[in-house]
């Protein structure tokens, strides 16, 4: 509908899993590498999990494009079947004769004969099961039995399971422990970061044939905020936003259009009218605008009276994705409205104290001051001019830096002071130290001053990027504390024992096995239960070891509270 208007060869934001439109963020590159590594092995399982709409199916299609020609592939897209039906589906995908009247064992024997013949011809077989979280435990056990088909050298079949996070939980169940032990590679695909979202949009526009500026910087930020970096939601919101701009006869998309589009995508009747009403209203406003346009040209003033106010026309800059991302340019009305929202959110009526002012700060100075406040929370006097890079100096104190994307709940779970990246109305990244948290407010140090602000105020200018300090485990730390073992296994055993005692976790018969204990601890702490001892798991273990660390829930976290 709008392709010719914007100069697209095709729709840039279709939700069809077209590999040409796959933007390879760092997360997607890592996921693809894990899949390819797993397939290059000697058989077993490869597992890729991710939330709905994060791009698993599209990534799978790209993955299939890179598989060598000597690999035969069986794709299963409807796994809500019995074990026998699944075997029949795999057989059909591999071109085997129909054996619907045969028993399950006869079907397995037929598949085994095929795999042995393929192996003798130098061919490999890969079974890809999408939406694998819908498989029952019985069917998964049958899938595991397929990997028993082997020669003395290798497994005859490789199996890739793609699914939502529930798949990881299912695979962690005791009943499927044998299958879990055969997983050679696994990866969880997270949402895109704010910067990746911007580049993702620019990349898709470029593939569709448009290299100019369409989305304003603030519109891009609005897309990220309302999509949470989930590619499918990004596509839906951007598609509806382009339609909205088209109905206004505008070649640019601004934040107000994105907000309206996001409400319609969500079906939020309270916040916005249905799509048909919006189109009718926009068309009427367009007719009114054209009438006013004719009248005002005679006076030498061109005023387009559309619902969005002054039309944005920002310059474009090249993005790292090879496409074009519009640089920041706000309308007067939109800028003032955004500032007014922050002032109202931060006002006393919201229980937030003084307004949060970010306009007068420079990104560099705010970052330095934020890290000074962060180190002060840990009891260290950090001075950038003397100590150099913050994260390098942190290691000399036995601390590590963790840079992640998250939300309010994640910050509360980690319970550590952090540096948040806030976006001011100019589009600059302003750093603030998060020193304390309560239910609906937080204490931020911005520009060397600390104040309480409401949660709504923080979330209106924060898009999820944060950095925090955490105490490194002994085997990674440059500091050797008296009485602390540097043996990784022994330290983990001691840490888990303390945590289990505090939390009253049931260790059970596997008390001497580290991985099941780690998974149980991760589930209790709201972390991904993968048995991998990463920074998030170590941070939560430190919490139960009686070590002196600052926390957001403690008043001692705030060095500027007075």
TrEMBL record:
CDD domains: AAA
Sections of the chain in a coiled coil: none
AAA+ ATPase domain span: 42-272
UniProt-listed Gene3D superfamilies: Cysteine proteinases (3.90.70.10), P-loop containing nucleotide triphosphate hydrolases (3.40.50.300), PGBD-like superfamily/PGBD (1.10.101.10)
Region spans: Disordered: 339-360
Domain of life, source organism: Bacteria
A single MF term (Gene Ontology): ATP hydrolysis activity
Pfam families on file: AAA_22, PG_binding_1
Organism listed in the record: Halovibrio salipaludis
The protein, known as: Peptidoglycan-binding protein
